[in-house]
Design brief:
single chain, 212 residues, alpha+beta, 2,3-Dihydroxybiphenyl 1,2-Dioxygenase, domain 1, eight-stranded mixed sheet, five-stranded mixed sheet, 6 helices
Length: 212
């Protein structure tokens, strides 16, 4: 199980201003990730070290956004002012999660600006919407050279700070966390209002730790 990426929903200022602000804080530039035709969203990406990335995403005025659970989740978070929407873990086999959740994974895809197609399957967005401390699960279908992890970054995801229960997350993902998961320190605090991903701490070359 790999901590794959963190999702940040754009606020009222829009995606361009959101990634400019995040990029200034981290001393790095986001790249255009393209459009999700099934979800009615688009994103920008910031590659990190260790095969991870930040996905900054905004919902579009598109019919798919009204039907897709992911589009609904992005819209809801953006209407709250934007911020961390959640996190995703990649796995080699989605069948155990399909059996537990009693539904099938759904296909996902997006087109890069240069026309390349990235494809995957995912499950668990409904769980993230109901309980935002929980990650969703994905299995990459495209060749490794097309996957976001092929874009090497130098910024390291050091810590995730989550409001919620480590036991709840462990039960959801089926893996014992302890103090870390896949090399990322996991800090939980008792729920104070809405559970979810509160902050992430990054180790930035030349800047030290940066908390967002």
């Amino acid at each position: 199980m790999h901590v794959d990426h963190l999702i940040f929903a754009a606020g009222p200022e829009g995606l361009a201003s959101t990634v400019e602000r995040l990029g200034d804080a981290l001393g790095a530039s986001f790249i255009n990730g393209g459009f999700h035709p099934r979800f009615g969203t688009r994103n920008n990406l910031l590659p990190l070290a260790d095969g991870r990335y930040i996905e900054a995403v905004e919902v579009l005025d598109h019919p798919a956004a009204d039907k897709a659970v992911f589009g609904q989740a992005v819209r809801a978070r953006s209407e709250m002012g934007g911020g961390w929407l959640g996190w995703a873990v990649s796995v080699d086999d989605l069948s155990p999660y399909e059996a537990r959740l009693e539904r099938q994974a759904v296909p996902g895809s997006r087109h890069f600006p240069d026309g390349r197609l990235l494809e995957w399957e995912q499950i668990g967005i409904r769980g993230l919407m109901a309980d935002p401390q929980l990650p969703y699960f994905l299995k990459w279908k495209s060749d490794p050279e097309v996957q976001p992890s092929a874009l090497k970054g130098e910024i390291k995801l050091k810590t995730m700070q989550i409001s919620g229960s480590p036991q709840r997350v462990e039960d959801w993902i089926g893996v014992e966390i302890g103090n870390e998961l896949d090399g990322v320190e996991m800090r939980f605090r008792s729920e104070n209002g809405q559970p979810g991903l509160d902050a992430a701490i990054f180790e930035v070359p030349g800047r030290g730790e940066v908390r967002i």
